[in-house]
Design goal:
This is X-Tfes XVIPCD domain-containing protein. By secondary structure, the chain is α+β, with helices and mostly antiparallel strands. The protein has 20 helices and 7 strands.
């Protein structure tokens, strides 16, 4: 039977006080015999799996029309910064429930909170931010079950929601059955149908929130050029267009800042936190088609990892060497690190990469380390050097980096065509 200790609570308290959502939920998810809630919460933080994406979209949708259900509340369309603030409040409310059970001498329940406690933490956090508590996806079903079938059945429903067996299909089936057992037919149909609608649309459109330089949906997103310090609107298959709308740019800049802040916090480990490996959030069966469809195949075809792209090849070889020497720091995502470093090289117009170097850490477990790309000899004062946080490179979704490389290649081709056109015009004038 798993349980929390006083030391665990001290570590969680530091993460909650610093607003470090990634480390807080990751710590809980690493604990032996944890029930899976921490891992699902990580999916919400990163927005990188279907359950997390549905939870985020559902909450935003409920907030938009909450005045219709509660006239005391204003309809809200929250920014990423506002949702981040809510998520940080939730850490404190969640920790309070765990401390309650520790004081009650139930360290097992301090680790795996009962569903009512998880709901209470969400209720208090939503109210603190002037949001309808029903923004939490499971709440309607849990309340209906509690009313119609009792607290014990509500707890069973909660445990079923944490079940990711068989790629999440068991959880989906259980939710469907529980809804029709606890709600009137049309209410259950509406609730299940709404969740299904989100799943169907998000499966094809949602993007993780871990990449600060790619914001939007798969069919239309903004990509940030660090070299130009500009945003480009990218619709797959078309030429990127530079964004000039000040309101949109301000919104994108703020969202990017939030993601960078969150990524920076994620590199700060408590000295006694021994869980340093990155956990992958649970993927479900409905995530799978995206990995197999033509869109991903096309992305793979555009990867700059062929013999005609020496920069990518140079980086890949250097990353492989670093991986063998510093596996813990670079994680288990060498393709993602390579692709992200290739983006960095292209954005800074490096024609070759002679060295990929890992800088010194300024914290425990490799926290604060940078990766450096060097063009030229290390002892040559004229060598070129660019850097990126190792944590950011490791966490960058590989498909996002491929999109960035594709867009950069399109822009380069466009620039070449423009230059050639200028030359042709000059020749005609001569």
């Amino acid at each position: 039977m798993g349980e929390l200790t006083r030391k665990d609570l001290e570590i969680l308290r530091e993460y909650a006080d610093s607003g470090n959502r990634e480390r807080y939920w990751s710590y809980l998810a690493h604990k032996e015999h944890s029930d899976g809630y921490g891992l699902l919460a990580l999916g919400v933080v990163r927005n990188d799996n279907l359950p997390g994406q549905v939870a985020n979209a559902y909450a935003q949708s409920q907030a938009r029309d909450q005045h219709d259900r509660n006239p005391a509340l204003q309809n809200r369309n929250l920014t990423e910064r506002e949702w981040e603030a809510f998520g940080q409040t939730l850490l404190h409310r969640d920790l309070e429930r765990r401390e309650h059970w520790m004081e009650a001498k139930r360290p097992d329940l301090a680790l795996n909170l009962p569903g009512r406690d998880v709901q209470q933490a969400h209720d208090e956090a939503f109210k603190r931010h002037h949001l309808d508590p029903n923004c939490w996806t499971p709440r309607v079903l849990l309340e209906a079950t509690r009313k119609e079938r009792g607290e014990g059945k509500a707890e069973e429903v909660w445990k079923e929601m944490l079940n990711n067996d068989v790629g999440g299909t068991q959880r989906a089936a259980n939710t469907l059955g529980s809804a029709y057992l606890a709600m009137p037919f049309w209410s259950a149909t509406g609730y299940v149908g709404r969740l299904g609608l989100y799943e169907g649309s998000l499966m094809a459109e949602a993007l993780p929130s871990s990449d600060p330089n790619v914001i939007g949906s798969r069919s239309s997103y903004h990509m940030y050029s660090e070299k130009e310090q500009a945003w480009y609107l990218q619709v797959p298959g078309s030429i990127p267009l530079r964004e000039h709308n000040p309101r949109i740019i301000a919104s994108l800049d703020d969202a990017r800042a939030v993601r960078l802040e969150r990524a920076e916090k994620a590199t700060h480990f408590h000295p006694e936190d021994s869980y340093r490996t990155r956990l992958e959030t649970p993927k479900v069966v409905m995530n799978e088609p995206l990995e197999r469809d033509g869109r991903e195949t096309q992305l793979a075809a555009n990867r700059p990892d062929h013999a005609n792209d020496p920069v990518y090849q140079q980086i890949r070889g250097q990353v492989a060497s670093l991986q063998a020497e510093h596996g813990l720091v670079l994680g288990n995502n060498p393709d993602g690190v390579t692709a992200r470093l290739a983006v960095l090289a292209k954005e800074n117009n490096l024609s070759q990469v002679d060295h990929v170097m890992l800088g010194k850490a300024n914290g425990p477990g490799g926290a604060g380390q940078n990766l450096f790309l060097v063009q030229g000899a290390l002892d040559d004062p004229a060598h070129l050097r660019v850097a990126i946080s190792a944590e950011q490179a490791v966490q960058a979704p590989v498909e996002h980096s491929y999109r960035q490389l594709d867009a950069l290649a399109q822009r380069q081709a466009q620039d070449v065509e423009s230059a050639q056109q200028v030359q042709r015009d000059a020749m005609r004038m001569a």
